[in-house]
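Notebook entry, structure prediction.
Reason for the run: the old model in the group folder had no record of what sequence produced it. Starting over properly, with the input documented here first.
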Amino acid sequence: MGIALGQQIFTPQNTRLSTLIGDDHPYAGWLYGSSSFISKTDNQLDIFEIQAGVVEPWSLAEEAQNLVHELRDLPTAKGWSNQLENEPGLEFIYQHKQRMLRSTNPRGWGYDVISHLGGAAGNVLSYLDAGAEMRAGWNLPADYGTSLIEPGGDTNAPSSVNDPRLRNHDRFGAHLFAGLSGRYVVRDIFLDGNTFSDSHEIDKEPWVGDFVVGASITLYRAKLSYSQAFRTREFEHQPHRHNFGSLTIAWTF
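New structure, fully documented this time:
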């Protein structure tokens, strides 16, 4: 089982204007808690996750962003008066991962390919997604890859006693990875606007793709990973594609 507490914050590109920017991302926030139920073997992982939380002023997105900006002596966003309306949110998320290929030699060098398929249903996000990740390196961890910080992304725990983090010797490993993922978005409250009331909304792109590359090392019971993600546009008038990094540190105990 797993539990998590998260907050997501969205703003348009130009945060200096206090007026509504009709063709850019709405001001929005999502504060949530989640509980996930995980079943796995050496070659298969299934995650069912339930998220419950609140959208907009209740999410404290404005307060959280302004606090960080003030601590860093950065300008604060001026348009939070245009944010979405308060709304409770409930999400049901499922992810299935399968180790399709795996090969290692006696010296510890090897590779594997991990596919994934899943989706989410709820008043915040509803989508279907699929993709695959390839890893290559020395002493590959026996887990299910390096996910971005996202729903259903809990894949770092070892799934076999052969994981280098669980050995009494040879407990260092390093590998590179690359992955492709696509999703069909049915609903995104942060773009489509509130479910039960009128709010700022824009036309979303239903098909969104990710290309992720990165590197990971394991040392004793720790795993450190860096991912660089390149994401296609999520709404029609989005000026640029997303390009962002994700750093994760995991400790096995």
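Summary: The first helix runs from residue 61 to 71.
The old model has been moved to the deprecated folder.
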